[in-house]
């Protein structure tokens, strides 16, 4: 590993701490060799290919797409009518065919597709399954036939609310196979989240589990589904079937009119089911993500572009090679886009086994991840900064106990990684030998959009480095003018890419308003960023009222609405605040109803209330009771001031529009 000398950077007021970072880690020949040989082997090669991908997107992506199997060819590679993109226009294919069938047809049916490990370790022995492509094809086909038998047809939306069991991947692929879109809901969300999403998607079939294992306890998934179905019925929406997979054997109530047993149903089905020929632009899935206002947005992804982009980005960013002994482990939950793209859809087409782990990183001990890596000889680990910070806190001795020598590449995703965490990851997990890819992307982008390539890009701790192929990323001002180096601005993408979102389900106006209205003709990511002297990108955090808690997006509005739905609360304002492990924690400023009494018990009750509406990830880390909230004369809550109060910073912000200075003074003096 060569370390180039520090490069001095000019100072900039807003990003002083980041500019201190001057460590650069160049890729080495040994790393490329250990990854089975580089796809892209130098920065110069990257620059040439990247420039070509922007100058001739049709030629570039046609070559990439030629590695996939299509049922009928495209008539044009891309049609762009901002903000609407079509990719591989006129072509038909099926992502399930490319992820599974194809490998079986090519004689690789016996190879491992999915390695699954359950959370419980009775007597210290984990439950492990190795599922080959041949077995996966049969399981997916049975499930596809089962869905058909329940009346699901092409174009329907099937809701999946399951734990991290292999059947979740099977169900996704089964939907894709028959042309039904899936909408996966994270198993940590409570009933109201299911209600909102099923209503929005007009989804009438849900697949769930009796329960999911989490840190040794059972999360009662079926119970949440039952509750959601009642609420939906009250709203006039009928759920026709709820398919239930037995996993935890907890007590559940059974409604024979709609509940169907996964195992019994699948057992009666044929293991043959032809793949539906899907138009490249047909809907593959909906995935809901938080926005700054209103309910979560159903992000739409289509078949062809998403398929090509996720598999190609996985191949290039992780240097995936089949038949090289690689084992890829992405620790995300499939309920988030990271799991969709880099546990299932991006990895399977590359014919590298994908590892799925059911539970928590600290169950039964703080070394569970490292034990899994050693036991399964994992070569690629893809995890989030929030997890890395927790590992640092739990102690170096846990990874040190295990043989991590199989690791060849480390990845980070979900939020900015602080340089200390990056260095710890490199040293304690990668033993100074593994390249680290800090991948910036979003639910909306489908796959990585700014990321190092492991054998080409020198990395700098804390920077996600350079745009991926086909991505014309820039930092601009409100008028779309590119800003000079080291100046913070808006992160945009100026050209279409295959996996870009195709819209927000049922809300064209919101799609345009959120992504396309602030800077004309450019996709607005919603993040602030700057580029350094090398042209490397540094993500500076969200520019809207979205906070990124442990790598998960939450709209501050959602948390405020949840708080206000409690009878004791009349008004609430929620902002992000620095948090050692989560990166950003949730601070809530709450004004109480005259009859309510401020107390620690009420704080605890409010936390639980928010968890009941939005899930445990949305629980405020800090609640402050206040007589009133600081507002402008026009009545807008001044969140930037609250952010300073929450962070314990002395605000030197402009308060000329503040209605009542006493409010702010009171908040500053009122420690929790
Ligand atoms: O703020 C950025 C942050 O996560 C947001 C996207 O969240 P989501 O759609 O839930 O997808 C997360 C996983 C892809 C972004 O707008 N983010 C994601 N990755 C990074 C990041 N911030 C900095 N560095 C990253 N590598």
Structural features, described:
With 672 residues, this protein is α/β, with parallel strands linked by helices. 32% of the residues lie in helices and 22% in strands. The protein is built from 21 helices and 31 strands. The protein has a seven-stranded mixed sheet with strand order 7-6-19-18-20-21-22, sandwiched between helices. Strands 14-13-10-8-9-16-17 form a seven-stranded mixed sheet, sandwiched between helices. A hairpin with a 2-residue loop joins strand 27 (546-549) and strand 28 (552-555). Helix 5 (95-105) crosses helix 6. The longest helix is centred in the N-terminal third of the chain and has 17 residues, at 133-149. The protein is globular, with a radius of gyration of 25 Å. Residues 1-18 have low confidence and may be disordered. Bound molecules: adenosine-5'-monophosphate-propyl ester. Adenosine-5'-monophosphate-propyl ester (PRX) binds at residues 289, 337-338, 413-416, 438-443, 464, 525-527, 539, 542, 548, 552-553.
Distance between the termini: 47 Å
- Number of strand elements: 31
Name the overall outline: globular
Helical coverage, percent range: 25-40%
Class of secondary structure makeup: alpha/beta
Unreliable stretches: 1-18
Computed over alpha carbons, the radius of gyration is 25 Å
Bound molecules: adenosine-5'-monophosphate-propyl ester
Kindly estimate the percentage of residues that lie in beta strands according to DSSP: 15-25%
Main sheet, how many strands, which sense, barrel? 7 strands, mixed
Mean pLDDT: 93
